[in-house]
Amino acid sequence: MIGYFSISFASKFVIHDFWLVDAFAIFLSTMGIYSILSKNDIAFVLVMLIGAMTKESVLFVLTLYYSLQSIKIIDLKLMKKTLMISIFPILVFILIRILIPPLN
Hints:
mainly alpha
């Protein structure tokens, strides 16, 4: 986060154009990382569902769920839990892409 906010253009642009969804995506990414570190799985799923509905770049935080909580390189139990948590946000993302046609 310190590295991101040290880039003055990125942080000033979000503050200047606050009505864009990028500020909300940064907020949801931060909340997702916080819920991972606080081990609150329900909040993490809710944040990822909202992120899948607003800005799909928030879904990159799903990969952090495994990497921030694993102790070993390969932890099958945590990998299964990560896949179970990731199903709902990815399913919502796919359904939105299928049900809403990409028209100009």
